[in-house]
Please model this.
Amino acid sequence: MPYNKIFNHKVYKIRTKYTKLKIVHSFYDSHPQTAAITVYNETITMRKYILASVLLAILSLSAKSQYSSGIVIEKLLQTDTTSIGQKIAYPNFNDPEITMSKITIHPGQSTGWHKHTFPVFAYVLKGILTVELEDHRLIKFKENSTYAEVMDIYHNGTNQEESDLIIIAIYLGGKGQKLSIPKEN
Model:
């Protein structure tokens, strides 16, 4: 049976003098890393936010408990903005397609000026990536760092180090869509 048919909810109801919360922790039995936590409330108070934060922390620990005890889960990136603060927006493709690529940039080489029209997330596996934006700003991403790439802004990624730069990139595109659009001279 496909995992999307085996969906579970854990419901936590909390009532205090100042707030009334219902927290729903939803997950797939056979795919527990696909989880969502929804907080329903009737009262807006500071205590509600503190209480919800504590419960969300506890519930996130329960996601770890769904794996074997020897498994370590390390969140690498959780963001709703790109590396320069743009709000991330998911495009509406008829045929969505995710592409994961391993990119090696040799010393002194660059990607060439390009832009992305959909969200791209990256992890610097080895080396330091220097990204120049159209407005001449420079952003450096060190080894073992993650980032959400800029959208609809031309940029050029360069390896200014003396050894290979290796990046893992995840493109949230669509079938037939280019992963990047080169800048015309």
